[in-house]
Amino acid sequence: MTIEPPSLNMAEARISSGHLKHNIREIQRCVGTGVRIMGIVKANAYGHNVHKVAETLEAEGVSDFGVANIQEAIELKTGGALKKPANILSFSSPIIPQIEYYLHHHIDMTLCDTAIMKAASAIAAKHDRKIGVHIKVDTGMGRLGLPPLQALELLREAAQEPGLELKGVYTHFAESANSDFTNRQFKEFKAMTNAYEAESGKTLCKHAASSGTLLNNPEMRLDMVRPGILLYGYKPYPALSSLVTVLPVMQLEAKVIFIKTVTQDTTISYNRTWKAPRPLKIATISAGYADGYHRALSNRSVVFINGKSFPQVGTVTMDQFMVDIGTENDVKIGDRAILFGWEGPSLDQLAESIGSISYELLCSVSSRVKRIFTDD
To answer: Which of 53, 43, 19, 8 is nearest to 366 (CA)?
Structure first.
């Protein structure tokens, strides 16, 4: 008889495939059948495990994926999770030595530089191939991309290059909210793409809307939308449109590894930032900032144990933190502590308490935390 050992992981991230499926179906329902969906899976799918997430999204009909750079693109392309040919767009403009990798792995590149355009075309033509490119237009984000008039000229030139396949044109909004600035960005983008399509007689895949804009501004969905945080169960800000209902995909858990009774005025953890107001019990939890539970949460957060909420106390350390479990409870060593997720504290509220955002806290969950996929 084989005896399965208990989990030896001190901290675990439970990833609900069921919740991820629910979220992508909600987005599909929201945007309708005429709009493509590019699943944003950069940063290891916001910390959720890019291969498992991409596999789940592909099974739900998603065939476009967005990553940050060529390294992430190659990892996704060669990881074995995708079963069908997929369109993978790297949102970073490459440097010339990287171009061969885009060609070899069939990765679409972001193009916003004439020298890169010429080099990419020449390298592809030498191999009698084409590289798929999307032109990036900077309408106000101030990151990558050319201003609309320069981007229009780059579009014209790229369309003539024998080694390039012009697959799309896109911009990125600086604000998720429906604002005058967002409307101006969209107006400039549409004017530029309309001008190109009118003079060339060709239609391009146009995309601009990420999670917030696809909810707030239906007219900005265009040919493709790029949901990121929405896939993982959160909105760019909690008060955003109720057009979709999404569920947290990650639940971060740890274990109660020690319990002790302390007297009144006992101080807890580094720098003695918390003092016991009365005799009570302190439970030590097996996670810390090395696992992604931010030090800034010290004395600001709660955890759920056996369905009850307990305040975190003292400074969060690298590998552990402590909670006040009072005097009357059923907490015991080995119990699960829910740090955030569908059974525990709201990640949005945790993020707000330290001036952060859900994106950052998800991406902070470190590689030493084992991801466990479930279908619930």
So the answer is: 43
All structural domains of the chain with their residue ranges: 17-232, 250-374
Q: Does the pLDDT of residue 79 top 80, yes or no?
A: yes
Q: Report if pTM > 0.85.
A: yes
Q: 250-374: what fold?
A: Lyase, Ornithine Decarboxylase; Chain A, domain 1 (2.40.37)
270 is catalytic: yes
Q: Which residue, among 121, 115, 113, 66, has the nearest Cα to 91 in the 3D structure?
A: 66
Q: In this predicted model, what pLDDT tens digit does every residue of 114-157 receive, in sequence order?
A: 999 999 999 999 999 999 999 999 999 999 999 999 999 999 99
- Are 166 and 155 contacting, i.e. CB atoms less than 8 angstroms apart? yes
Active-site residue among 42, 206, 255, 281? 42
* Nearest-angstrom CA–CA distance, 20 and 129: 36
How many angstroms separate the Cα of 303 from the Cα of each of 10, 273, 283, 376?
15, 18, 11, 22
pLDDT(159) > 60: yes
Cα–Cα distance between 337 and 311 in angstroms, integer?
12
Given the residues 270, 275, 308, 332, select the one marked as catalytic. 270
CA angle 229, 231, 235 (to 5 degrees): 45
> How far is it, in rounded angstroms, from Cα 105 to Cα 359?
29
Q: What are 131's strand-pairing partners?
A: 164
Strand partners, 261: 281
Fold of 17-232: TIM Barrel (3.20.20)
